[in-house]
Specification:
65% helix; mainly alpha
Length: 146
Amino acid sequence: MATPSVAPLDLVSRFAAGDTSSEVMQHMRGGFSAWVRAGATVPLERCLKLPNTPKRARLLQRDHWLCEVVRLLNEVSAWAASVAVARELDVFLTRGPWRVWQDLDAPPLEASELRTALFHLAKANGGRSLTPRHVSRRVGHIFERQ
């Protein structure tokens, strides 16, 4: 399975946190260069490939974390991954640590990679479950690139 590319929102978030890696700086330089070339007539968020509303930002984050959960579960097909993600998210929300963690800004440091990704997915999705069909529509592209 291919690793999903890094979302522009994540690159900008990393930049805001002080990350100056070449990947982050290349994205920022490209966005600002496009903005300057356009004479500031194009919104900066568009040049940086960022969502322009809070709802779109939340959905972009949700989809990023869906892809991350798929990567961590390491399933071999889009449908198997979709069923597994929906099941893991449902268990995390109903019988897992979500009830205790939901008011936190970040999961505890000792949380596994999977639980960390599920936490961020749950936050971005408002603490709601997703059906396998919905997950499949959002992550199917990962398996098409194989």
